[in-house]
Give the backbone structure.
Amino acid sequence: MSVKQVSVSLDNVPGKFLAVSEHLRVEGINIRAISVADTSDISTVRFVTDDPAKTENVLKSHGYSIKETEVIAVEVPDHPGGLVAILKPLKSAGINVLYLYPFLGRGESGQPIVILGVDKTEEALNVLKQNWVHTFGKEIYAL
C-alpha cells in the first residue's frame, strides 16, 4: 500500500531532530518509520507517522520546509533472503528502489514491514500485489 512519507532537511547540529520530535510529541503524532541520511552540513530525515496531514501542518507551522512523497509499505518474509521476494519482482519490472528503511512494528501476519521509495510507485504497487498474492497468498501490508 502506498503511504505518505514526510521529509525534512535539518542542519547537522545537536538538537535539531530533537526539536522536530518534540513538536510531533506535543501534538500526539507517533513516528512509525524513520530514516536519517547525513552529509557534513545537512541531515535529511524521512519518516512515516500515524497522521501525515497533521505532521505536515505542525512542521510547517514551526517554519520547517517539508517534502511529502508517496512510498510503499510492504511486509517482508522474516527469513534469510526474504527481501528477495520484494526486490526481485521490482528489478524484473525495471523499477528502481531508491531507498528502503524499516517500519517500527510488524504487519497483520507478524512479519516485518519495510518502507520503499521507488522511481515508479504505482507500477511497483501493481507488481508487488501480483507477486505477493502469487508467492504468499495475501495482499501487501496496509497501514
Summary: The chain has a mean pLDDT of 90. The domain at 2-68 is CATH 3.30.2130.10 (VC0802-like).
